[in-house]
Amino acid sequence: MTTAKDIMHPGAQWLPAHETLDRAAQMMRDLNVGALPIADENERLCGILTDRDIVVGCVAMGHDPSQVKAGDMAKGTPRWIDADADVTEVLQMMKDHQIRRLPVIENKRLVGMISEADLARHLSDRQVAEFAERVYAP
């Protein structure tokens, strides 16, 4: 059985909700990622911040990224998957909620992230096509 832990990108890091968006952008640059999970003061997932969120939701709106907190950008119900979940559960969650990145949690700690690139590397062409159809369909 292939699990979330088998296909995830290990070593993901939290971005504390109190950090500013300019700090988030620096972390993304340093980690070479396009998204960071946002954590509250108890290290509980409260959202995911993308580079697009920073550009469209802050910069393009005329706001100063050094003044906007990551937690202010967290919207909706955060989704995550247990490290031991079967890959079919991963796909189902990502398809059902039309999400492209999924934090992987083990013992209440962030251990990795699953992105579209991870799916493409580890799944069959048919599985990837089904995922893309569901996530990108209008």
Automatic annotation (TrEMBL):
Keywords: CBS domain. Residues 8-66, 73-130 form the CBS domain. It holds the Pfam family CBS. It comes from Streptomyces ficellus. The keyword Nucleotide-binding does not apply. Signal peptide: none annotated. Transmembrane segments: none annotated. It comes from the Bacteria. This is CBS domain-containing protein.
